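Appendix B. Worked example

We walk through a single record from start to finish. Start with the input: the chain for RNA polymerase sigma factor, Pedobacter helvus, length 183.
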Amino acid sequence: MKQVEDAEILSKFNDEKTRNTAFNLLLQKYQQKIYWHIRRLVIDHDDADDIVQETFVKVWKNLHNFRSDSQLYTWIYRIATNESITFLNKKKNRNNISLDEINSELAETLSSSSYFDGDKIQRKLQQAILTLPEKQRIIFNMKYFDDMKYEEISEVLGTTVGALKASFHIAVKKIETILLNQD
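Next comes the structure step. The output line below is what the pipeline stores for this chain.
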């Protein structure tokens, strides 16, 4: 199936008669990418599904305000990232636990998840990623898994390209150290 251009989606969305069609095209184009982006941040499948739904509800409500000064998918990624961070912060506050404890809980969820179909190496990589501070983890995931350019990540996170490169480099070194020191 041919990918529809963002400009066409936006054009259709701005027309009342084709708004639903446009949103369905947007979902077809971005839902899976957004799901995996969120899933790598929150680990749990059910939580990721809920956050994807929240993300696309916000997209639906705010798409008419979208200004084309950024790319559509970086705008959606920003919403998804913010929703994921909000979810993790609420979880941390609700359970009155630290970020380290959240990361430990996420690692435990990863180990016991029936939805994780990765091999032992992928599991070790995911567990190493979970030891990173939140921002480094987000940057690493966007660069490594989503293959986003630094400029795109900069748009999503509102951080300079130089800071992103430094964070990614530090994250890679931490992950390498962890993986090399595992049995």
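Two observations about the output. The domain at 6-180 is CATH 1.10.1740.10 (Rna Polymerase Sigma Factor; Chain: A). The first helix runs from residue 6 to 14.
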